[in-house]
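sry for the spam today, last one i promise. C-alpha cells for design, 674 residues
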C-alpha cells in the first residue's frame, strides 16, 4: 500500500495498492519534489470516471510504467470532488493550452506547483495521433533534465497568464427584463426542437437551464419557455439516460437522442433533476413529471443513502458483465435473450416492444438500453408493473456498480432541497424525514463550532479539506428549503450562520465571489467562476441562498450581497445562457411579482397545514414560503404577527412589505393565481 492508504476519498483508495508511489496533495509532496529535484506529476480524477479507471488499469497498475514514474517524478493523486479548487485551477490551464479538458487530467508541475505540460487521458501505446503515456513521461523527464530554463519560462508564462485573468461583472445593476429576454432567445436558438435539450452530442441534462425556463414561464406566462422545458424533460424521461427500471438519471447521453448514456449516476444530477421534475409537475400537473420526480427521489434514498443518513456521491458506470470482465453499462442493458430468460417468450416480446429492445441493440454487442419510445401502443399498466418487478429482481442478481460513499456537503445540500420539496408536494413525509436526517448530518459532522464547513466525510469520518463556496451556497439552500417545508426555525438559523461566512470569507471587490475562502490554502491562482457546470457554481448558489435568506428575514445586507453577485448574470446571461442557468433562475426572483409567503399559525393546526400546502403548491419555483407560530420571532418580515380573528393567517409579501392577511385557502389561492 502507498501513501493513499489512510485517506477518506474512495477514488484515492482505489489507487492505494498501485505500484505507483502516490502522494496525496500535501505540502510534503512538493517538498519531496524539491528535495529530489524532479517534477510533480499531478493526476486528477474521480471514482465514477470511466476513463480514469481505464488509464489506471493500463498505466498505473503496470509495474514498468510505475517504476519509471517513481524514478523520475513525485506523483500526486487528487480527487476532484474533494479538491474542486485544485481541479479548477489546473483545468483552466489545461483548457487554455489545449482547447479542451476532461478527466483523468494529467498535469506536470514544477516543485512550486507551476504547470508546464498538460493532457487528459494518455493511452499505453500511440493511438490516433496521441502519444503513449510512456512517451509523454520520457519526453517530460528529458525536458526537465536538459531544458530546465525553457520549462521554467513556460511555467512562468502560464502562471502570469492565469493570474492576469479577471471577471467582468457587467457594471452596476442586476439583470432585468431585457437580459432575461435575451437569455431566453439564446436558449431558443440552441434548442434541439427534435429531441429536446440544447446543442448536440454528447448531451447533458440541462437541469439549471430548465429551472430558469420554468421560473420565466411562471413570471411572464411565456408558453415557449414552458414548452422547451416540458419537451426536454419528457425526452429525457423516455430516453436511455433515465433508468426505466430503477429510476434516476445517468450522467449524460453520448448521442443527441438521449438513447445511450454514460452510465455513471451522480448525486448532484439526480438531486437537481428531481427538483426540476417536481417543479414541472407543479406548473403542468404532468403525471410523467410526478412519476419521475418520485422515482428519482426514491432512487436517491434507496441507492445512495449511507448508514450515517447522508447521501453518497455516485455510482460507477462499470461493473462485471458476468464473465469476469468489467465493462461499462453491464448492470443496465438487456438483450432479447436475457428478457426471454427472465420473462418467457410472450412477456419478453411485450417488454421488448415497450422498452425498445431490439435484436440489433442500441448499445454494444447487441444489447439495448431500456427506453420508452413513442408509439409503444396501449399500455397494460398491471402487466407492465409485473414485468418491471421481475426485471428489477433479475437485475439485482447482477454484479452491482461500485458506489463512491464519500459525502460531499454541497451535493447533500442539493439533495436536502430536492427531497424536502418533493416530499411536501406529493405528501411523502418519509422524503422530508430523509432530508432532515441528511441536514442533521451536515450540521453534526460537517459544521464546526464556528459554522465553518468541511467539504467531505466518509463512514462518519470527516475529510481534511475545507468547504468551498458551493458547499456554503448549496447547504444553505437545502436548509432554507427544509425551513420552508417544516417550519423549523433552526434551519433558517443554520443557513444564516453559513451565509454570514460567505459575506465574511468569500466576497471580493464589487460583489464578486471567490470559490475559496480568504484564509484557504493559496494556489497559483485563487479560483473564481460564476458559470454553472454539472451543478450550480458556488457563485450563483450563494447568490440564490443569500436572496432566499433575505426574503425570510428582511436582511437588506444579504439581499444587497445577492444583487451585487448577480451583476455577473447581467453580463453573461445574454451571451452564454446555457452555462449560467442557475444565475438566470435566481435573477427571475428579483423581478416583480409576489415571491414571499408567510403562514402564521400553530404548526399542528389543520388550517395552518392547509394554508401552508396551498402556499407551497401555488407559488412559482424560487418563491420563499415560511410557516411558524405567530409571535415566535420567526417572521421578522412581518410587522403584524397576530392571528386574524384567532385563525391561521397567510401573508403575501414583496421585498418585506406584506399585503392584507388571508385566512382561508380559496382566498390565498386567488391571491397567488393573480
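last one done:
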Amino acid at each position: 500500500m502507498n501513501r493513499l492508504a489512510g485517506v477518506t476519498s474512495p477514488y484515492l483508495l482505489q489507487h492505494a495498492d498501485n505500484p505507483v508511489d502516490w502522494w496525496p496533495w500535501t505540502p510534503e509532496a512538493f517538498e519531496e519534489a524539491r528535495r529530489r529535484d524532479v517534477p510533480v506529476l499531478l493526476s486528477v480524477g474521480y471514482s465514477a470516471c470511466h476513463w480514469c479507471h481505464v488509464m489506471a488499469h493500463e498505466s498505473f497498475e503496470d509495474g514498468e510504467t510505475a517504476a519509471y514514474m517513481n524514478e523520475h517524478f513525485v506523483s500526486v493523486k487528487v480527487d476532484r470532488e474533494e479538491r474542486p479548487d485544485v481541479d479548477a485551477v489546473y483545468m483552466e490551464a489545461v483548457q487554455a493550452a489545449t482547447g479542451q479538458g476532461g478527466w483523468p487530467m494529467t498535469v506536470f508541475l514544477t516543485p512550486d506547483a507551476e504547470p508546464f505540460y498538460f493532457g487528459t487521458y494518455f493511452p499505453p501505446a500511440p493511438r490516433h495521433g496521441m502519444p503513449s503515456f510512456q512517451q509523454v513521461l520520457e519526453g517530460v523527464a528529458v525536458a526537465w533534465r536538459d531544458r530546465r530554463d525553457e520549462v521554467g519560462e513556460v511555467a512562468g508564462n502560464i502562471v502570469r497568464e492565469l493570474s492576469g485573468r479577471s471577471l467582468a461583472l457587467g457594471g452596476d445593476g442586476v439583470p432585468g427584463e431585457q437580459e432575461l429576454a435575451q437569455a431566453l432567445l439564446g436558449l431558443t436558438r440552441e434548442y434541439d426542437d427534435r429531441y429536446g435539450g440544447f446543442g448536440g452530442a454528447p448531451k447533458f441534462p440541462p437541469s439549471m437551464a430548465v429551472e430558469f425556463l420554468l421560473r420565466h414561464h411562471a413570471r411572464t406566462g411565456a408558453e415557449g419557455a414552458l414548452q422547451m422545458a416540458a419537451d426536454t424533460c419528457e425526452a429525457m424521461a423516455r430516453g436511455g439516460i433515465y433508468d426505466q427500471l430503477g429510476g434516476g438519471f445517468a450522467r449524460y447521453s453520448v448521442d443527441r437522442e438521449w438513447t445511450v448514456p454514460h452510465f455513471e449516476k451522480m448525486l448532484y444530477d439526480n438531486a437537481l433533476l428531481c427538483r426540476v421534475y417536481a417543479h414541472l409537475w407543479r406548473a403542468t400537473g404532468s403525471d410523467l413529471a410526478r412519476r419521475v420526480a418520485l422515482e428519482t427521489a426514491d432512487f436517491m434514498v434507496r441507492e445512495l443513502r449511507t448508514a450515517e443518513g447522508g447521501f453518497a456521491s455516485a455510482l460507477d458506470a462499470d461493473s462485471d458483465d458476468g464473465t469476469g470482465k468489467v465493462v461499462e453499462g453491464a448492470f443496465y442493458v438487456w438483450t432479447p435473450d436475457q428478457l426471454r430468460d427472465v420473462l418467457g417468450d410472450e412477456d419478453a416480446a411485450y417488454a421488448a416492444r415497450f422498452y425498445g429492445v431490439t435484436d440489433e441493440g442500441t448499445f454494444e454487442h447487441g444489447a439495448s438500453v431500456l427506453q420508452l419510445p413513442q408509439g409503444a401502443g396501449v399500455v397494460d399498466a398491471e402487466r407492465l408493473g409485473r414485468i418491471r418487478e421481475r426485471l428489477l429482481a433479475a437485475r439485482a442478481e447482477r454484479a452491482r456498480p461500485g458506489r463512491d460513499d464519500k459525502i460531499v456537503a454541497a451535493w447533500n445540500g442539493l439533495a436536502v432541497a430536492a427531497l424536502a420539496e418533493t416530499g411536501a408536494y406529493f405528501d411523502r413525509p418519509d422524503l422530508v424525514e430523509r432530508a432532515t436526517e441528511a441536514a442533521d448530518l451536515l450540521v453534526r459532522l460537517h459544521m464546526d463550532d464556528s459554522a465553518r464547513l468541511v467539504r467531505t466525510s466518509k463512514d462518519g469520518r470527516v475529510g481534511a479539506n475545507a468547504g468551498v463556496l458551493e458547499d456554503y451556497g448549496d447547504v444553505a439552500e437545502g436548509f432554507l428549503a427544509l425551513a420552508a417545508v417544516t417550519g423549523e426555525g433552526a434551519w433558517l438559523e443554520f443557513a444564516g450562520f453559513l451565509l454570514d461566512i460567505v459575506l465574511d470569507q468569500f466576497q471580493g471587490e464589487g460583489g464578486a465571489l471567490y470559490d475559496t475562502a480568504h484564509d484557504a490554502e493559496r494556489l497559483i491562482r485563487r479560483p473564481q467562476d460564476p458559470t454553472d457546470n454539472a451543478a450550480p457554481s458556488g457563485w450563483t448558489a450563494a447568490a440564490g441562498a443569500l436572496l432566499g435568506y433575505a426574503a425570510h428575514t428582511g436582511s437588506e445586507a444579504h439581499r444587497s450581497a445577492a444583487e451585487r453577485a448577480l451583476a455577473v448574470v447581467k453580463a453573461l446571461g445574454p451571451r452564454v445562457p446555457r452555462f449560467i442557468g442557475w444565475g438566470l433562475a435566481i435573477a427571475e426572483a428579483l423581478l416583480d411579482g409576489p415571491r414571499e409567503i408567510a403562514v402564521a399559525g400553530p404548526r399542528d393546526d389543520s388550517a395552518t397545514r392547509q394554508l401552508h400546502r396551498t402556499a407551497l403548491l401555488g407559488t412559482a419555483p424560487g418563491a420563499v414560503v415560511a410557516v411558524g407560530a405567530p409571535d415566535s420571532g420567526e417572521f421578522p418580515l412581518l410587522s403584524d404577527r397576530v392571528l386574524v380573528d384567532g385563525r391561521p393567517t397567510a401573508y403575501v409579501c414583496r421585498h418585506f412589505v406584506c399585503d392584507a392577511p388571508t385566512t382561508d385557502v380559496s382566498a390565498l389561492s386567488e391571491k397567488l393565481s393573480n
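The chain has a mean pLDDT of 92. ok im logging off now
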